[in-house]
Design a protein that fits this description.
CATH superfamily of the largest domain: FAD/NAD(P)-binding domain
GO molecular function, one term: monooxygenase activity
Pfam family, one: Trp_halogenase
Bound molecules: flavin-adenine dinucleotide
CATH class of the largest domain: Alpha Beta
Keywords: FAD, Flavoprotein, Nucleotide-binding
CATH architecture of the largest domain: 3-Layer(bba) Sandwich
Organism: Sphingomonas naasensis
Number of domains: 3
Number of strands: 21
InterPro entries: FAD/NAD-bd_sf, Flavin-dep_Halogenase_NPB, Flavin_halogenase, Trp_halogen
Strand order of the largest sheet: 5-4-14-15-16-13-17
Structural class: alpha+beta
Length: 505
Amino acid sequence: MVNGGSAADAIERVVIVGGGTAGWMAAAALSAHLAGAGVAITLIESSDIGTVGVGEATIPTIRRFYAALGMSDAEVMQACQATAKLGIRFVDWLRPGHSFVHPFGRFGQDLKGLDFHHYWLKARAAGEPAPLDDYSLGALLAREGHATLPASDPGSQLGIFDWALHFDAALFAQHMRRFAEKMGVTRIDARIVEVRQRPEDGFLDSLVLDSGASIAGDLFVDCSGFRSLLLGETLGIDYADWSHWLLCDGAFAVQSERAGPPPACTTVTARSAGWQWRIPLRTREGNGLVFSSRFQSDDDARKELLAAMPGKPVMEPRRLRFTPGRRAVAWAKNCVGLGLASGFLEPLESTSIALIETGIERLKQLFPDKSFDPAVIAEYNEQSAEEIERVRDFLILHYKLNGRSGAFWQACRAMDVPDSLNAKLALWRARGAFVRYRWEMFSPASWLAIYAGFEDLPTRLDPAVAGIDSDQLARSLAAMRRALRETVADTPTHQEFLEIMDGAA
Ligand code: FAD
């Protein structure tokens, strides 16, 4: 073996605690990754405790996650009652009556070597009113309720966009479970009543179940949800509380009947002390109100949600509480936390499942041996911390730029934001450019969508746009808008798209 490792050091037993989205995604991906390597994977979940039962909106990385397991879009969509998500439509966040789409993908096309937004800003300064959305195929499709696959040979940069899914989270976990069990993962349905640690170093040793059985492991993956049974409760890893930046700390979630044809986007509408989500699935809709308990009572939040829901509720709203933040480290001793056990920000921008994917990917890349070299753990923790802090900044931006009235929204506007976000905002405003940190989940196109959607625009244009003839620019932009409108008119409705995908399953 290289680097002094020996076969005797190899991890032989991985124990995953929790069978929610995080647990079964980890089981599926690790069983595929470690196939043939002689590693036994056991997943323990408690059907008495159940799962958090929300988490229906994703970002495009989910499609690459399951593609790596050999699953097609059509297969997953059918198994999980999924619809297509081309972006998020923000309603009333800047001011009542205003909306914009954060699409997955780029805006416009390059004309003379500059990022597209510089041309858009020049035309805007000359009085062209078309919003940035008009230059994104993904945003236009989402707005019109159409859906299609990105052009495989785009011919024009205008055909480039990406897409994700809205799915039934329980069905997705079951789909991952079927795959994992086929790959040899052992599932135990039991409640863990005791966690045993090695006396000499505090490493996790075994889990005692309510049946009396004891399950030993070398590496433990904590996917136990908000309780954080291993990382938080047992190993005592502190929680960094970010509720001074992300004021929402809970939600009411409810499923409803479908109200009309499904839009191909998540809709998030600003409300008095937070925002409301609407997620279309095949036969029902997921709805919820995320709010700040400092600014709204439970009773008012529940009423506000039910009053503004287009579909008839099919259940009582469920109250969920969370503290935005993360565990100080995601990996301690021989335990890696994934999903809610390692932290949660809030549902806006659907980043929680995506953080599970990147956590799993990082674990694959840095898979340890029994020596649990501190260098490996430190690298995992540094990457995880940087990534979630960048997501945190992106979410804070949405609140900071709001233009609404009311105590909650004024508090969001007035709050101090992290230096890392201030640096981004300063460069954007000064020069229309993007500070790029490591481990960013959201590309400059996403930051642009939010800056432009909130009409927070640079004070100076790129000097090079002065060299572009204004009339020629106006003609080029009009041609782009026309080409995109014509493309959208030729695409199926979202409902037709779903039927086409079913035919391919
Ligand atoms: P859970 O689903 O809570 O699973 C925990 C598991 O641990 C369960 O199987 C439970 O039985 C088991 N367990 C716990 N204790 C024990 C024990 N003692 N013994 C045995 N088993 C035990 N994410 C997105 O990406 N998109 C969204 O749109 C989105 N919306 C959200 C909306 C809200 C209001 C909230 C709160 C979260 C949302 N999330 C969203 C986050 C998403 O729901 C989670 O990231 C995802 O469901 C993963 O959860 P989990 O598997 O970590 O935890």
